């Protein structure tokens, strides 16, 4: 009986010790310098700064095209993919963290790597409070994606702007939108803002925009369109632009169809409305 009590005591002590170890890791994981370290790690992966990261899916997999019926199944699949990536890509993760983070922080994460994998890839079943480290790390990843998006948008401004560049920015925006949508750390306002940004970016890569660029470049004679009388088509003034696309939309449909050979506005109504909202056109 005494031996049994001793065994139970040792077992309970070991369980308590393990639990204390995990709690200690949780506290230290998000301590001083941690957020900066993880953001640098995610930024390095996003920007493909380290070649080894190309072989692993360390980031949240985009699920924008999912239907409501299969979203939970695919979310679980994404988590499984991330777990596999962080398991098989351990040396790559540690190399990146060693390069991007302080020595103290990278050493701590290396020593506790198995616990780190669990926190990065195992979504808590009870996320009512949204306080678990998983959600903190998920939010840091989303912020890194948003930061990378902002930097890429700055890179693509002015003379450097290209159609391929705009397509790349749109893809990054969609990935950021997916990350923020699935994270409980962001407000509806923040989600709406990124959605509106993606809608506008989608417009810039559309057939509609290609057509408008053609018109602005070639500047054809538009005098035959009576619906454009007393209207400066080439004005950059936001008030004039709002007037053009809100009150002369049927007219603009004829113009673009004649010059570009197709009804480029047909499939871009949503993006066009987002563009007008961004200009803050009055109703």
Automatic annotation (TrEMBL):
It holds the Pfam family DUF19. Residues 1-20 form the signal peptide. Residues 31-121, 136-282 form the T20D4.11-like domain. Keywords: Signal. It comes from the Eukaryota. The keyword GTP-binding does not apply. InterPro entries: T20D4.11-like_dom (IPR002542). This is T20D4.11-like domain-containing protein. It comes from Caenorhabditis brenneri.
